[in-house]
């Protein structure tokens, strides 16, 4: 398939969007990507969905290096911790990247990982009850860049109403009978 032509179809650069090739109902890929921070793929190496056992060794040997290089790409992006001002973990904090419509959330111990291509990004961490924190980070190839967030607890904004400024005696003289 890496040459583009196979199985009666043409795939530019040997790659296709699975949804444009054939539909699949009740698959886990979209759900896991959108709801669990898990990035799943399907590798289709031949036209035969269930190749014979004697073909498996050839497929493995022919694709092993590419698969290992692909797996190593998980080390590209940013990773770190989201903590409060007392260094307590902040689970379920949202880490968003400006211009990318897919957020990730921190784990139970405040840890997160965000796969990103090399480039410069504006990254924001938010959590309920805390002020958001935004940083600009440059990601290079290879090992992930460490980006830790320490969020400060929000101070509720109290707005005063005019009634709070009334003095007790002026209120009583104005509104009391007699």
TrEMBL record:
InterPro entries: CarboxyPept-like_regulatory, Peptidase_M14, Peptidase_M14_domain. Residues 158-178 are annotated as: Disordered. Residues 1-74 form the Peptidase M14 domain. Gene3D superfamilies: Carboxypeptidase-like, regulatory domain, Zn peptidases. The active site is at 44 (proton donor/acceptor). Keywords: Carboxypeptidase, Glycoprotein, Hydrolase, Protease. GO terms for cellular component: extracellular space. Transmembrane segments: none annotated. Pfam families: CarboxypepD_reg, Peptidase_M14. GO terms for biological process: peptide metabolic process; protein processing. One of its GO terms (molecular function) is metallocarboxypeptidase activity. Belongs to the peptidase M14 family. This is Carboxypeptidase N subunit 1.
């Amino acid at each position: 398939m890496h040459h583009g032509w196979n199985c009666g179809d043409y795939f530019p650069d040997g790659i296709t969007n699975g949804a444009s090739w054939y539909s699949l109902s009740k698959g886990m890929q979209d759900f896991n990507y959108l709801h669990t921070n898990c990035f799943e793929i399907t590798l289709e190496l031949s036209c035969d969905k269930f190749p014979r056992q004697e073909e498996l060794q050839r497929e493995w040997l022919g694709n092993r290096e590419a698969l290992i290089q692909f797996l190593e790409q998980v080390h590209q992006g940013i990773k770190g911790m989201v903590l409060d001002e007392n260094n307590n973990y902040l689970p379920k904090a949202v880490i968003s990247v400006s211009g990318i419509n897919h957020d990730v959330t921190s784990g139970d111990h405040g840890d997160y990982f965000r796969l990103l291509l090399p480039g410069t990004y504006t990254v924001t961490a938010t959590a309920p009850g805390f002020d958001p924190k935004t940083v600009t980070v440059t990601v290079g190839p290879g090992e992930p860049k460490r980006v830790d967030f320490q969020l400060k607890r929000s101070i509720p904004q109290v707005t005063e109403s005019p009634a709070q400024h009334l003095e007790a005696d002026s209120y009583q003289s104005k509104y009391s009978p007699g």
